[in-house]
Amino acid sequence: MTSADLETILARHGAIEDDPHAATSPPLYQTATFGQSRADGFDAFDYTRTDNPTRAALESLLADLEGAPHALTYASGMAAIASVLRLARPGERVLCGRDLYGGTQRFLHRYLEGVEAEHVDLARSEDGRCPALEAALAEGGARLVLVETPSNPRLDVTCLRSVCRSAHAAGALVVVDGTAATPWLQRPLEHGVDVVLHSATKGLSGHGDVTAGIVATRDAALFTELAARRNAEGNALAPFEAWLLLRGVRTLGVRVERAQETALEIARWLESREGVTAVHYPGLASHPGHAVHASQADGAGVLVSFRAESAERARRACEDTRRFTTAVSFGGVASSISIPHHMSHASVPPGAAPPPEPELVRLSIGLESAADLIADLDAALGPPSDRSPEAETLSAATVSLHA
Description:
Oligomer: single chain
Strand content: 5-15%
Helix content: 25-40%
Shape: globular
Distance between the termini: 41 Å
Structural class: alpha/beta
Largest sheet: 7 strands, mixed
Strand order of the largest sheet: 1-7-6-5-4-2-3
Order of helices and strands: HHEHEHEHEHEHEEHHHEHEHEEEHH
């Protein structure tokens, strides 16, 4: 699918079929139930927990973006992740990469009862295989292989074709969390993946006013099973949030293209900045996954992470910025900064993959001026500012609350 195709889909799609008024902006059907034309059956819509015209229009648009016939939206990204992970039954295994969102790891290791979750090295060898993954698959019982690429927060890159080749040979499904890339940049189903999911709270919405998740697949049987479970569990996206997301996603392309230009500029600047010991961004030629990412994605995205020379310097860099909001989410029009160790990954339980180091800082680049953001980071990464004991105590309490 070309960028021109995606541009047209975003600009023209999303209308509600059979709308008697032909509204050019999809209307909000803020209703719990729908009147029926007969008493012995149902019309197209009967109850919003099952389906809703606004949500259906959103799902049709998202399915087209992913190149899939089927998409489902959920009340949050974690609701989408949990629904897919529950495809694994007690006694089965879920194999996953070593860098995953903290909430995903919490669910895998604390709430997916009876299912073994194992973190494996998904690196590809020179012959295109994934040796560690194949060894884990050979032990049997693997139902799902879960991948984030680029991963959150280290921005590791995994070769989707190689993982699919290994997993499918062993009878396992491949699930990709594509939140960091969004379908504007990467469409995993085109590379053989079975299910792709997103926290639509992030880049798909882009405005920080929606909590939502999506799942897309080409497998009709999987879609039917997931849809039935969503109806039974009642975790579908509500109409108003569907309407907000439908509005926000229409600007996905222009937002991502603009923000990732700045992200690359900031990543290059960080590589030469004193006090920064490593920069993670797949758009950099120095990134070990640069070539693989370029082969399966159309851009490097808006996330940049870097390692400061100490945990204290990382904390002060985060707290001293003025044009970045300290926040756990990403992908919005306003730039944000966080220390995943203390924030998005503070809930990683014992036995899961090692959490990000406290020196690691994650940036989400928005639509501000690149020069302004670089100047802000430069000042924040400078000599540590003087702080009173009261300020230090308040800072520690804030970190504790986020954890």
